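Hey L., structure's done. Input below.
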Amino acid sequence: MDLLFWTYLINAVILINHEIDSAYWQEWKLFCADDKIDIKGFLIIHFPILFAVFLGLVLIDKEMTSGYVISLLVAAGGIFAFLFHFYHLRRGRHEFNNWLSKLMLILTLPISLFQMALTIIKMI
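Output:
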């Protein structure tokens, strides 16, 4: 197993922990202020997301192009999570405003950027 596999795995663990944290903070309210989504919708959305994240790791291990595509999506998701949440924190939102929530978000940025770079290198 190579560096991309382990980077992907580490990033996925951090992002999945962030999603657990997101359920606590009711993250869906940041996306949908009119209560069209609740915890049930949030959980339903995560079935295909988590399946894709785990599938991507398997495909990375098999060095398949589809795994690299999923890896880019996971890395982009980590970058988005960092930017989205720190944008809301700077605007005074209280969600994710504790040291562990922030640490997970801060860690995912460089790891996601590194994962993206490794993935692109593998693809060319």
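Residues 21 and 37 are 17 Å apart (CA to CA). Residues 65-90 form the longest helix (26 residues).

-- N.
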